[in-house]
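Complex 270.
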Amino acid sequence: MKVQLLDTIPSRIAAEQATVFLPFHNFFTFAAYNKKGGNQVMRILLIEDEPDIAAVVKQGLEEAGYVVDVAEDGMQGLDLAAERNYALILLDLMLPRLDGWRVCEELRARRDTTPILMLTARDAVSDRVRGLDLGADDYLPKPFDFDELLARVRALLRRDSIHKTRIIRIADLEIDTGTRRVSRAGQEIVLTPREYSLLVALAARQGRVLTRDVIRETVWADEDSYSNTVDVYIGLLRKKIDAGHEVKLIHTVHGLGYTLKVPRDNAPSD
Ligand code: CA
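Predicted structure with calcium ion bound:
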């Protein structure tokens, strides 16, 4: 990943950023205050009712240096999430008392923007779409390799820290969220405010699939938009960001939505 973390956004600027990027504004306001730096121990909340899975995941994460709290049902998970500041939440979907979707929905309704990685037992696309629509950041179908889980956890934590940077760099794309200047391969790109909001929505969550509904809520908020508005704007953005460049950054994920990322073939391993 060619993402460089430059200066941390001071809280004053962070507050201004919030007006640009509403649904994720707590990343700027809370994260900037609460996280102290690279060496801080990361605390992860695992909400999983299967004792065997919970034990294995907890042990593996602890060996990787994380501190892990386990909640055995959805209600307990919500209580713990309210009590402590977690760097990440691992969320099983089929849970007693309150299922994972409801937990996700409730967390986002509380303006809790902790990254959520869903552990999905079923591989139905509709389950994933539902989770992503409710504000989860990524999903991992069970059964999974622990290494894969660890890689997703690292990626989400890294992505979360991108929210605290002023300049987002993805390959040769550069977005200065302070001046709202965008360039690719050193060439400045002029975007309309709407195109800019769409680009930042995608870039700030690099690699995450954003469904059309999430994009609509992020970029168009409460305004009326036509059913194909997102697709139309993605098309406009592609012309400005990707046209004429060998490496395409904006990708359609069929049946799910859109993502902005460096294709695997072109990404330096990290
Ligand atoms: Ca379960």
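The two ends are 6 Å apart (CA to CA).
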